Amino acid sequence: MIRRLPIVVAVVLVLGAAAACGTTSGGSSAATGSAPGSTGAATTTVPSGPLTGATAPPTLLGGSGPLAKTRVYAGLSRNHVDGPIRYRQTPPVGGDHNPVWQTCGYYSSPVNTPNGVHSLEHGAVWITYRPGLPAPQQAVLRAIVTDHPYVLITPWADGSLPSPVVLSAWGVQLDAPSATSPAVAAFVREFERGPQTPEQGVPCAGGVGSPDVQSRAPAGN
Fold this sequence. Notes:
Elements: H1 7-16, E1 23-24, E2 51-52, E3 59-60, E4 71-72, E5 80-81, E6 86-87, E7 105-106, H2 113-121, E8 125-129, H3 135-144, E9 151-155, E10 165-169, E11 172-176, H4 182-191
Parallel strand pairs: 1-5, 2-6, 7-9, 8-9
Antiparallel strand pairs: 3-4, 4-11, 8-10, 10-11
């Protein structure tokens, strides 16, 4: 049995992100990776823009089962930023983001990172994978979105992901060795619109982008 996120952890995540969404002027959005010294590997993209993301080391969810090694982050800001943003984690687990969210679904090309982070705020599970992931593995991921309107699946822009597949929701993240790992289904079941979601009831459809595959399930409100 997969245990639910402990209520204490959920409260910490939500309170840590409880600052009201603000707006900072800037240029056009651009996807960026981790800044130097981040907890993730360095990317090939030259960092630019303000730095955001969790500053404290994560704790582990613990327990038993496929979610035991899930990393839990707190203290994530939620400001709206027009322009490039740098993230401390690769891929991000939250932080400041673009004013428009990425429409959930499966994409065969990388998306703008700050838009994807906004989707996390709405309750999305963002599954990122290395560009070289075998096609059969990508097909397994693509099939997930059919019944999950709050799942965003994209390749990462370069090879900096810490594992072939990374599962992220607001404030939580887990590495997976493959698309068929039990962690994938367990993470989606636990954290899609889970208790860690800062903005419950906000859709993940109708944002920016046109997914290659979109969920047939009701989007919800």
